[in-house]
Amino acid sequence: MQANLKKTGVAALVSFAMMAGAVAPAHALGKREKGFLTGVAATVAVGALINQQRNQQNQHPRRVVQQQPQYYAPQPQYYVQQPTPTYARTAPVAYEPRYRAPSIYSVPAATTFNEYSPQMRREIQLELARYGYYSGSIDGAWGPNTYRAVQAYARDSGNTSSLNSVRGAYGLYDALVG
């Protein structure tokens, strides 16, 4: 009974809203006002239909089907005991990375060469070029060509071990330009 009363009330409201738009004098309401009232009436009608549908759904409760739990037999697991490796029984050993050769820019010969003035560095390169060890530009910069020339000069003069220290490199360069 109450649902019918709601339907009747909504229908009456919608029809009244539509009538008000049609009955109103033409000069009292413009196109925008009439359009607004029509939109309001349509909104009320749609809202009433949505509420009616919701009420019908609530009257018939849904049937909930409970699922039966499914049981699975556990799969057997087999473990094979592995023999302990011999290295695991000993004390841990510290990891040391493999040897990497030092950069040609960090060897004692390079640091010593760069401590000279630019003029002296150019003189060292010029002397190496005169002896035929250096073929690059005389720019006073340490690079691969200068490194190879200094190594070759030290090897031929029998002073290879002098390149392993700063003191030995100073002696080699001073003998070259001295």
Describe the structure.
This is Antifreeze protein. This protein has 178 residues and is mostly helical. The chain contains seven helices and no strands. The chain folds into two domains: 2-56; 108-177, no CATH class. It is elongated. The termini are far apart. The mean pLDDT is 78.
In short:
This protein is mainly α. The protein contains seven helices and no strands.
Helix content: 55-70%
Main β sheet profile: none
So how many helices?
7
Radius of gyration: 50 Å
Shape: elongated
Strand % is under 5%
The overall number of domains is 2
Secondary-structure element string: HHHHHHH
Q: Report low-confidence residues grouped into runs of 5 or more.
A: none
What is the rounded distance between the termini? 122 Å
Mean pLDDT: 78
Structural class: mainly alpha
**Count of distinct strands:** 0
Organism: Cereibacter changlensis JA139
InterPro entries: Peptidoglycan-bd-like, PGBD-like_sf, PGBDSf
Protein name: Antifreeze protein
Keywords: Signal
Secondary structure layout plus pairing:
Blueprint: H1 2-23, H2 31-59, H3 86-89, H4 108-115, H5 118-130, H6 144-157, H7 166-177
Helix pairs in contact: 1-2, 4-7
